[in-house]
Amino acid sequence: QVQLAESGGGLVQAGGSLRLSCAGSVLTVSRLNMGWFRQAPGKEREFVAVIAWRGGTTEYADSVKGRFTISRDNAKGTVTLQMNSLNSEDTAIYYCAADLTRRSARYWGQGTQVTVSS
């Protein structure tokens, strides 16, 4: 059973930054693609970013490219999403995911709320 735990969500003003963290086991983070999805009120869950388990290649949704950065620390079993230049459209519940594609994931965290006030 893969367990993922997010932290770092909260309320921030537009233009500000937040840093989300996802804690999993060292074995999970080091051997699976890791990433983030988000779900805004009234909308479907959408892909945000992914980092490959081998080589650390990253991919981002067009809506966050250039503003968000995903990284991983295999030794600690953590994945981080640095979010800059936040705007109201980034308001959503953010989910950490493991073993994912852009469409879905095999394992999910519980989610953490991010609210951007304008």
Q: Can you tell me about this structure?
A:
The protein is mainly β. Helices cover 5% and strands 50% of the residues. The chain has one helix and eleven strands. The chain has one helix at 26-31, and strands at 5-7, 10-13, 18-23, 34-39, 46-51, 58-60, 68-73, 78-83, 92-100, 105-108, 112-117. Strands 2, 4, 5, 6, 9, 10 and 11 form a seven-stranded mixed sheet that branches. Strand 9 (92-100) and strand 10 form a beta hairpin. The chain is globular. The mean pLDDT is 95.
Q: List the total number of helices.
A: 1
Rg estimate, integer Å: 13 Å
Mean pLDDT over the residues:
95
List unreliable stretches of 5+ residues.
none
Shape: globular
How is the biggest beta sheet arranged?
7 strands, mixed
Strand content: over 45%
Q: Summed up, what is this model?
A:
5% of the residues lie in helices and 50% in strands. It has one helix and eleven strands. Strand 9 (92-100) and strand 10 form a beta hairpin.
Write the layout of secondary structure elements.
Elements: E1 5-7, E2 10-13, E3 18-23, H1 26-31, E4 34-39, E5 46-51, E6 58-60, E7 68-73, E8 78-83, E9 92-100, E10 105-108, E11 112-117
Parallel strand pairs: 2-11
Antiparallel strand pairs: 1-3, 3-8, 4-5, 4-9, 5-6, 7-8, 9-10, 9-11
